[in-house]
Write a structure and sequence with these properties.
The protein is an alpha/beta fold and 638 residues long. Among the domains are: 199 residues, no CATH class; 148 residues, 2-Layer Sandwich (Alpha-Beta Plaits), CATH 3.30.70. It is 62% helix and 15% strand. It has 24 helices and 16 strands. Bound molecules: ligand C2E and calcium ion (2 copies). One calcium ion (CA) binds next to loops.
């Protein structure tokens, strides 16, 4: 009994348990009210038949009121989805009091000892419909008390009989009340325990284990929920730059700790506003900013987060630096669904990475067309047979000293079924962004090597590497395996890299280039002069060649300064033992200007446009004949 009171007390104080108690009781009380209502309709009819005048008015009135009240309670108050324990208790007590009033009125008007049994019956009924312990106690005491009071007016024998019956009923009623409640409370405890376990499991499924932030699934569910409710919001994606290489170089343990520290800083920034932060990828975080905040505020928020991440992290004894970029999209003005919003924030992020690294970019609705095209391209890259659609054109590199073509640069082309010919700048960017670059590189490189095998043994092939190829050592290892598998001399293969590609992660890029260089391959620094043109790369990377960007050649004809710079670069290359290539020579006039600068090689439309593999093989073959002719001619002259 004590245990029961204790459990009951606990249930009584705890709002969750109170509600659970109410939820368990509502069907009992509602179930009780329906036959109750029917019974009092029947009783009213009985009074109508048996009573007249004042008695009919009182008894019929009370029983009709009871039937009506039962019906109303059942249909309206207890028909609601959530009923509080207080309301339920009031309903229970009202139910009992009405029932009691019927019996009381009847007894007062026509006292019959045999009808005392109604009080006994009521006590038993109250033990179930009383809902709360106090309500039940009150109801039982009321009915048994009345029983004793009315029994006092009866003859000796009846009185004695009903005293015993009353005592027995009290015990039975309390016993039943406590048994019923015990059973219900036990069930409630079991259900609460199950609910709690389910909630815990669900929380785990929605949490990122490493950072304890909401995970991707949870963030998307949250986003979809907010979008469905129609409330405006900003969705942001923050992506770390250079995290992968820290993972590669220092190991996952350090990487994990770094992520933890990153999250700490992001969470601090997020806590300044009503902002939800989650981890949606390895080094990618989503933020949901509710409300219609102005664009400038969002940009400032993004930049503040990025600014915090730009400060070095102290992990173990290491001082580690990562950067970050962010993209944002607004609901509803920039996207109508969660998925669309994500796509657009991601697109803004990609823009940030491409043009404004380390900054925040907001999606610009004017770029919608461009984005759709990119999405179509990405889908095609994923789904099409790239082996059939990708191919290479080869552009000759002409040696002024040897008066001959000494090699070709492989230029990627994509004849896409549906989109037509796609420019390499475009599809390579998309492939890089969507994680498809490795496949593209592998397919193109295999084709390049197959062509190289058909070219004369003294000719080389230059192959462009993307920034993605320079942040993963296994890509280079794969390329070297492909060269070895074909039995091609590694020194016939040259890899072209750009400053921007190397810059993303210089130490890792250097490691990869050293791998390639150690295997015998050549490395050329492409587009020199178009970007930062920092000489530090010439010094830090295992280079064999520098390619002066075509924009420079364009200016050389008009500008003395440009000419001086190009002359300086070529001279520097000679001094460092590097070969130089001038790109983009198109006309006689341009050739006339660049010839005195004495570059090793020239590559441009003047000496040949990009051509098919067959054409390149044919051109090299005739040149081979011509070279042989030249040699025999000079031999004859001697
Ligand atoms: P890039 O490496 O600087 O390639 C040279 C670009 O200059 C080629 O454009 C070529 O067709 C063009 N070109 C050559 N001579 C002349 C000239 O005399 N005048 C003018 N106006 N242009 C000339 P393309 O083929 O459209 O390639 C564009 C860029 O796409 C390449 O620039 C390179 O960065 C990238 N790319 C091409 N193929 C590949 C590839 O297989 N892998 C990777 N990662 N990138 C590639
Ligand atoms: Ca190139
Ligand atoms: Ca170039």
């Amino acid at each position: 009994m004590l245990r029961f009171i204790e459990t009951y007390g606990k249930a009584w104080r705890d709002p969750v348990r109170r509600q659970a108690l109410a939820d368990a009781y509502v069907p009992i009380v509602r179930g009780f009210l329906l036959p109750g209502c029917a019974y009092y309709v029947f009783v009213t009819w009985g009074h109508w038949r048996d009573e007249t005048g004042r008695e009919l008015a009182i008894l019929g009135g009370i029983s009709a009121l009871t039937a009506l009240a039962y019906w109303l309670m059942r249909q309206s108050v207890l028909g609601r989805p959530k009923v509080s324990l207080g309301v339920l208790e009031a309903c229970g007590v009202l139910t009992n009091v009405l029932m009691y009033s019927n019996v009381l009125a009847y007894m007062l008007l026509h006292f019959e000892p045999s009808k005392l049994i109604y009080f006994v019956l009521m006590a038993v009924v109250f033990s179930t419909s009383g809902v709360t312990l106090r309500g039940t106690l009150f109801s039982i005491v009321l009915s048994i008390g009345s029983l004793f009071w009315f029994a006092g007016g009866a003859d000796q024998e009846t009185r004695e009989q009903f005293v015993f019956i009353g005592i027995a009923t009290s015990f039975a009623a309390f016993g039943m009340a406590s048994l019923l409640r015990k059973a219900i409370l036990k069930q409630i405890e079991a259900r609460l325990a199950a609910d709690e376990m389910a909630a815990r499991a669900q929380a785990l499924a929605r949490t990122d284990m490493l950072t304890a932030l909401p995970n991707r699934r949870s963030m998307f569910a949250e986003l979809d929920g907010l979008v469905a409710s129609g409330k405006p919001l900003w969705l942001g994606i923050v992506d770390l730059d250079g995290f992968k290489s820290i993972n590669d170089v220092y190991g996952h343990l350090i990487g994990d700790r770094l992520l933890g520290a990153v999250v700490e800083r992001l969470a601090e920034e997020a806590s300044k506003g009503d902002i939800l932060l989650g981890r949606i990828g390895g080094d990618e975080f989503a933020i949901i900013v509710p409300g219609d905040r102005p664009a400038a505020e969002i940009e400032a928020l993004g930049d503040a987060m990025i600014g915090r991440l730009a400060l070095p992290f102290q992990i173990s004894l290491l001082s580690l630096s990562v950067g970050a970029s962010a993209g944002f999209a607004h609901f509803p003005s920039m996207g109508a669904s969660g998925a669309q919003l994500y796509e657009r924030a991601d697109y803004a992020l990609y823009k940030a990475k491409a043009h404004r690294r380390g900054r925040t970019v907001l999606f610009d609705s004017d770029e919608d067309e461009e984005m759709k095209e990119n999405v179509a391209m990405e889908r095609a890259l994923r789904e099409h047979d790239l082996n059939a659609e990708l191919y290479l054109l080869l552009q000759p590199q002409y040696s002024l000293r040897e008066n001959a073509i000494t090699g070709f640069e492989a230029l990627a082309r994509w004849r896409c079924d549906g989109l037509g010919e796609v420019q390499p700048d475009k599809f390579i960017r998309i492939a890089e962004r969507s994680g498809l670059m490795r496949r593209v590189t592998d397919i193109l490189f295999a084709k390049g090597l197959d062509t190289l095998a058909r070219l004369p043994a003294d000719m080389s092939l230059s192959f462009n590497l993307s920034a993605r190829d320079l942040v993963d050592r296994s890509v280079a290892a794969g390329l070297l395996r492909m060269i070895a598998a074909r039995g091609i001399a590694a020194d016939r293969v040259e890899f072209e890299i750009t400053e921007t590609a190397v810059m993303a992660d210089l130490p890792l890029a250097r490691l990869i280039l050293e791998d390639l260089s150690a295997a015998g391959c050549r490395i050329a620094l492409d587009d020199f002069g178009s970007g930062y043109s920092s000489f530090r790369y010439i010094d830090q990377l295992p280079l064999n060649k520098v390619k002066v960007d075509k924009s420079f050649v364009r200016q050389v004809a008009h500008s003395v300064t440009s000419r001086e710079i190009v002359a300086g670069v070529i001279a520097l290359c000679q001094r460092l033992g590097l070969r130089s290539v001038l790109e983009g020579v198109e006309t006689d006039a341009e050739l006339a200007v660049v010839l005195p600068l004495e570059p090793d090689l020239i590559q441009g439309y003047y000496f040949g446009r990009p051509m098919t593999a067959d054409e390149a093989v044919a051109v090299s073959a005739t040149q081979g004949v011509r070279n042989a002719d030249n040699r025999s001619a000079s031999a004859a002259a001697v």
